[in-house]
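idk why but the lab printer keeps eating my pages so im just putting this in chat instead. protein + zinc ion:
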Amino acid sequence: MAKDPVCGMAVDEKKAAATSAYKGVTYYFCSAGDKKSFEKEPEKYLGKKVEMGHGGHGHGGHGCC
Ligand SMILES: [Zn+2]
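predcted complex ->
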């Protein structure tokens, strides 16, 4: 299981909605939107501590994204 660097959710590499390679590392995302956010400012997401849970993503409620 990988961790979505944008939202902190655990993402199954095989089921990831999107992936992105940055500095030789592959990152897995729960949604294409998170991938886009990451690609815009990768350092921001790699630098910050990933808070668990979604603020304004609207992913609330259901088990997986
Ligand atoms: Zn996510």
